[in-house]
Specification:
binds adenosine monophosphate, 13 helices, single chain, Rossmann fold, three-stranded parallel beta sheet, mainly alpha, Tyrosyl-Transfer RNA Synthetase, binds tryptophan, 53% helix, two-stranded parallel sheet
Amino acid sequence: MNNEAKKTVFSGVQPTGKITLGNYLGAIKNWGPLQDECNCIYCVVDLRSITVAQVPADLRKNTMELLALYIACGIDPQKSTLFIQSHVPQHAELAWALDTISYIGELNRMTQFKEKSRKHAENINMGLMNYPVLMASDILLYQTDLVPVGKDQIQHLELARNLAERFNSRYSPTFVVPEGLVYKQGSSIKSLQDPTSKMSKSDPNDNAIITLSDDADTIRRKFRRAVTDSDTCVRFGEDKPAISNLLTIYSLTSGESIADAEQRFAGKGYGVFKEAVAEAVIATVEPIQQEQQRLLKDKAYLESVLKQGADTAERIASKTLAKVYRKIGFIPRVR
Ligand code: AMP
Ligand code: TRP
């Protein structure tokens, strides 16, 4: 397929420390397989991360670790564009223009904003509220067709679509209106301690989340401690949120279907099942961890990926931004 006919894919994760199994199964794992059919652009969204206070040294470390993780998870810098959000200034610039067509009411209603405001009551800053507009800017700058994300981002994606349509109708067609790509399985991995809430990076209970940097023993221990449902049957169902979550994790990491897994563990009890889930997760994350560590030692390579990625991203982004500024009525800079 020539590049013109290919769809454009854009997605990103924040470099805020612990990357969870939810981030992996709900998002990053799905990115690599899109590389051959689509023009893929994957971003480390560092501008977003400072909406919650960060320690500068940690932010630097987490950013490079996340970049290495993307590559270790099968994203090939020869096929996809990989870059850091703050390297392409057009993200913040388009966000400003989009801010002026976003309503306080629609941002105030966002579930993630309300949740984060509750969690960080001492720091409900403008960036936190404004953030979905920045995310819309990320997506719209690249004329993105598809956005592979977990379920929790659907509301933000809806805003990006609304802003694209609003701008297009106020001026003239400028932005592609993006579609979400939310996979049936894995788009909402739950906490191991409370299967009614999502597995979240910021969970204060370390036993509730599996991170991609956990070692094998930690993973075994966390699954052993995972809460289960009242009966002892390994079965998928709405009435069994804890076991359904574990079955989803098992299926996505082992490659076995949920139906086959139900049969395999019929009558075996939760102990045996949880052990198998842990081993499947370990077998998935260990090679990723090794590759990530190898990449992190090769700073020159990672920097070359970043340079190339930012150059490619900026070329596309500056074209879109120039178009937007022209339509708004700004005078182009004389060069
Ligand atoms: P974030 O951690 O907020 O930067 O999320 C990055 C990506 O991971 C987004 O596409 C989220 O939808 C996805 N994600 C985060 N948590 C989960 C989860 N528990 N299950 C599935 N996907 C998730
Ligand atoms: N908002 C996402 C999150 O917090 C991360 C993100 C930022 C993103 N920009 C994006 C995801 C653009 C998809 C497309 O999880």
